[in-house]
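As a warm-up, study this chain.
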Amino acid sequence: MRKSFFICVLIVLSTPYVSHSEQPIDVLQKSINMGIAILEDPQYQDVTEKDRQQQILCEAAWEAFDFKEFSKRVLGSNWLTFTSSQRRQFIDAFSEFLCKYYITRLQEKYTDEKVIYLSQHPLADSRALVKVSVLWKGAEVPVEVRMLKRNDTWKVYDIIVLGVSGVKNYRAQLQTILLKQSPEQVIGLIENRIKKEEKRAQNKRKAN
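Now compare it with the structure written out below.
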């Protein structure tokens, strides 16, 4: 699972928003170097620069990913039980957690992975599916990137690695939690995870 989400972040970082005139697969192929360039930039090699590098990578992810759509799909029918304020809080907290958790590990583990672009398939309702393959430690890992066109821009709303959907994975986890806890409690849990991740990253950098 960790490998799957490492690849998810790698794909998301390489997918900025674009105009409607560009095809999703062209966007992926054209902009793959954006996130990689940040990861490989020598100015961020020093441990004191890792927080700044993470912030820049997070900003790239926020531009590329439709976190509202992702959050809505993750919550499923529970979305209707959240108030407007709780939905906004959930989106903000969830997106920050995903950023802090996965981008920190991307910073720690990235080793020049490559992406092969295979095909693009239109879906209903201004959506598209892009199939790629990520070269990971000598093996090709199949990845499906689901994208949505909104306001003349393409953004990612789900990534499927080795048949595992990010949306479905988190939906299963949160549905179980929401059977016992309220929306506010779930948001609180996510905020606590953010704090724990920040502390873990700080301790690891001090150790290095």
